């Protein structure tokens, strides 16, 4: 793997010049790391690095007292950042850990401390901070959307709002997560998810073909969206 190329394509180094990327790489340590499915990348209370996704899927997660796993924001796009919120935050985090949802490769970055950042060119410092802020902002938007969806009263309303968020401009919907992961995200059980999807198909509201979902009755579907 060409680590420099992966950094150049990442959210962290967006709009960097070649010289700026070279300067940053002299101050940080970057390692290629591989994780198996369900392997933990880091615990949020002990975050000492940030991570850039090369391939795979990583989500933050929390276990309830009963042992149920709840999934938070996941990163599945090449170049996305994860771990930055917990690296820079000194507050007690709600989420417990970050976990690989499939075989995953990341760049593990250490050395982004205040003292080292201050040694960088001022323009580079500003660019780096803007990129980190953009990444954090995306996550806050995601959290707001998750709260809105999971606060819905019915399972059908949760599913409908979730599917709406995946709908493309042409109306197509493609599921990129397993049913277990979707159920975790919606804070419902997998059997409840499967039952309700089955009912929605039986009532000809939706049609599921593999990982694609087709809305058959837009009027009824929209009735569950707020």
From TrEMBL:
Residues 12-135 form the Cyclic nucleotide-binding domain. GO terms for cellular component: cytosol. One of its GO terms (molecular function) is DNA binding. InterPro entries: cNMP-bd_dom, cNMP-bd_dom_sf, Env_Response_Regulators, HTH_CRP, RmlC-like_jellyroll, WH_DNA-bd_sf. The keyword NADP does not apply. Residues 153-219 form the HTH crp-type domain. Keywords: Activator, DNA-binding, Transcription, Transcription regulation. PROSITE patterns: CNMP_BINDING_3 (PS50042), HTH_CRP_2 (PS51063). CDD domains: CAP_ED. The keyword DNA-binding applies. It comes from the Bacteria. Gene3D superfamilies: Jelly Rolls (2.60.120.10). This is Putative transcription regulator Crp/Fnr family.
């Amino acid at each position: 793997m060409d680590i420099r190329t992966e950094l150049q394509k990442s959210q962290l180094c967006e709009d960097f010049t070649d010289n700026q990327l070279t300067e940053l790489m002299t101050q940080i340590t970057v390692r290629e790391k591989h994780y198996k499915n369900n392997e933990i990348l880091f615990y949020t209370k002990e975050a000492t690095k940030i991570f850039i996704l090369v391939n795979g899927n990583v989500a933050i997660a929390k276990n309830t007292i009963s042992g149920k796993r709840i999934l938070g924001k996941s990163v599945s796009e090449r170049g996305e950042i994860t771990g930055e919120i917990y690296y820079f935050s000194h507050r007690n985090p709600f989420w417990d850990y970050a976990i690989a949802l499939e075989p995953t490769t990341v760049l593990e970055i250490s050395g982004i401390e205040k003292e080292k950042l201050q040694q960088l060119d001022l323009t580079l410092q500003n660019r780096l901070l803007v990129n980190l802020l953009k990444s954090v902002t995306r996550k806050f938007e995601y959290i707001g959307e998750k709260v809105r969806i999971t606060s819905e009263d019915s399972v059908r309303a949760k599913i409908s709002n979730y599917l709406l968020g995946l709908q493309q401009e042409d109306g197509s919907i493609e599921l990129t997560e397993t049913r277990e992961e979707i159920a975790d995200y919606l804070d419902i059980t997998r059997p409840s998810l499967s039952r309700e999807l089955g009912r929605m198909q039986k009532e000809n509201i939706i049609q599921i073909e593999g990982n694609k979902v087709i809305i058959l009755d837009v009027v009824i579907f929209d009735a569950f969206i707020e």
